[in-house]
Design goal:
- A 4-stranded antiparallel sheet has the order 1-2-3-4, with no helix packed on it.
- Helix content is 29%, strand content 27%.
- The protein has 79 residues and is an alpha+beta fold.
- The chain has a domain of 32 residues.
Amino acid sequence: MTVAVHKPTATEVRQNVDKGSEALKRLKDKLMRPGVRVYARRDVPLYSADPERPGVYIRRLNGKIDRGILENGAFKVTD
C-alpha cells in the first residue's frame, strides 16, 4: 500500500508548532505537580507506606484504616 500526502506548507508547520506549544503550556501545571490523586471507592482498598514504620503498610477500606505487612502477597493486619 502506498499513501500519498501533500507536504505541509511552512504556514501549516508553524500553526501546528504554535498549537502544540499552547497545549504544553496548558498541561505544564498538571505535569509539574508531584504525585497522583487516587479516589477511594467502596470495597476497593487503598494502600500506602507508613512513613513512621518502614516495612509497614496502611490500608484504607470503607472508612477503616489498618496497618500491616504483606505476607505471601496478602495484606496481614499487625495492629
